[in-house]
Amino acid sequence: MALEGVSINTIQLSDCAVRFRWEERPDALVAFRGLNLDCNDFRPGTDCSVTLDSSLDLVSDESAAISLQAKGTIDFNLKETGLPKMADGLLALSFGAGSGRLDELSEAQGEMKLAIQPEEVGDSGLRLFRGNEDLGSIMVNGPFDSNRMEGRLSIKTTPLKRPILNLVATVSGLDFGGTTLSSDMTVDWAFGGSMVSARGKIEASNLEVLKGEARTPKTAFFGEYAFQYNQDDGSLLFQKCQFQASSGGVDWLTGNLGSPVILSWGDARPGIKEPDFDLRVKDFDMKAWASFFQIELPPGALSFDAATSIQRDGRLIISKVHGDFKGLEFPTPIGRPVVTDLEFEFAARLEEMKRLSVVDATYHC
């Protein structure tokens, strides 16, 4: 048990400062100032409360930063597992003046609300707003028995736009420009929490990522999924997985699972027929998307078709890939890059989720 035997009379922090920095992003900073926290009589199965009052500085780099004030009280009762039996309260968020890509959060307000009861999760989550303008929210609610670990929760996001997306991406330094993101998911718990099912969809319009002078093409994305995790027999069943992305009205990414597939690492052998997953990429501009993937990619357009067969309940995955690079650039010692088209094909085998081998690889320019 995570909290078995834990009993703390008082937890108190007064006017503390806590800073977080990242080695790969030395300019980024998350810092608590004037942190005050009080919690009394903390032990599993007992009602207690925690009060928080703190300033928080979020710095992405020298041109983008914002500060906010968080204040509120949460009443809670934790089980010995560490999961909440009850949690109820509100943290009020108040943003100051922002700069750079965080300026659209200037003078915004927010609420982080918890309304968890033993047999139900009321409207809980995060909502940001400025006056009557809704800047986006992520909310959870639904019937849920925390003792039996059974129920159904709905997780919805109202359209998330640049202010919230850039706030989440503070440390990465990415700017999501005109992106609008929304999602809808339903999660079911059954058999004491040993079986978890989820289904939902995610949609993005005008998806773009800016970093410095680099900007990705504006993209529309839509995806649907459904899966079921069974802890008892050690399996993960994908019932649905399909997605597509397009720019300028042209689909450049599609993926579709032809029939349900099960990945099993336990002793069970469900014996579902061998499904196929088809993935197609057409004229993917690698240089334009390099900032999104946070890696260096050479100029060129990538296209490929990948037909994947999933066998032996996921213990053997075989993928056959055929594609080409157009306008691929290679640097040379004399400074003038070599530009060429490259066609390739190969087959890959993944066995027992451990052994990966690539065979029958060929290419020509």
Uncertain stretches: none
Provide the β-strand percentage band.
over 45%
Mean pLDDT: 88
* Number of H- or I-type helical stretches: 2
How many individual β-strands? 22
- Our Rg estimate from Cα atoms comes to 25 Å
Structural class: mainly beta
Shape: globular
Largest sheet: 20 strands, antiparallel
Give the topology string: H per helix, E per strand. EEEEEEEEEHEEEEEEEEEHEEEE
Give the termini distance in whole angstroms.
60 Å
Helical amount: under 10%
Can you walk through the features of this model?
With 365 residues, the chain is mostly beta strands. It has 2 helices and 22 strands. The strands form 2 sheets. It has a 20-stranded antiparallel beta sheet that branches. The protein has a two-stranded antiparallel sheet with strand order 12-13. β4 and β5 form a beta hairpin. The protein is globular, with a radius of gyration of 25 Å. The chain starts with 7 loop residues before the first strand and ends with a strand. The mean pLDDT is 88.
